[in-house]
Amino acid sequence: MKRTVLFLLILILCLLEAAADPFSTHVSAVILDAGHGGKDPGASANGLEEKELTLEIVMKLKDELEKRGYDVTLTRSDDSYLELGERSDIANSADFDISGFPVFISIHINSAASASASGFEVYVKRSDHDVAMLSASSGDKLMFKYSDYDNDSLNDLLNSANLRLASLICSRFKEEFPSLSMRGVKSEDFYVLNTAWMPAVLVEVLFISNKDDARMMSDDDFQRSLSSVIADAVDNL
Length: 237
Known about the structure:
Elements: H1 2-19, E1 27-34, E2 44-45, E3 48-49, H2 50-67, E4 71-74, H3 84-92, E5 101-110, E6 120-125, H4 140-145, H5 151-176, E7 182-188, H6 191-195, E8 200-207, H7 211-217, H8 220-235
Helix pairs in contact: 2-8, 5-8
């Protein structure tokens, strides 16, 4: 009897702890952001443009996520130009199932002055930069979901979720492409990461300035495999 009571108490405590984290349930929507677009081509090298590669990858990733049952919102679905604030506004106002939480994934292509630079990396916001979770204009569902929290605790939980998602993406990429360089998880003050009211990562997919990386990124099979890698990470968040 005592063991049963103790087990129930532990179970209740675990459930209460999980309930205290709005990012501990399940991903119910994904906002995909294809970097650059329109008058902003991004990086260019080896006959390729970043804005075209990011859109190709995002469209394949959208298909993969929808096959797995996720609701997907795109910041852009064609060669259009968006201000950074417009991208954040689309993400923060996207519809989602309130029993879960949305995530934001921005896809970019890396570049460097040295043609030998190569590899894959994922960025999160800096942990010392707080997102104004409870003061910025946002969708009603997000406001409702976060209404029981203060801004400091939300940012602590958000930082943890960001790192989990970024680490999962890097881990799956390394499994899928063991011969490619893994540059790992990094943090930076990118606008779209600093203004997203949800777990958010910015993926730098190899280097357009590297001939081998560029050839790989333009391959349909690689793009599909990359989409599965990222979708697997979302599944396991």
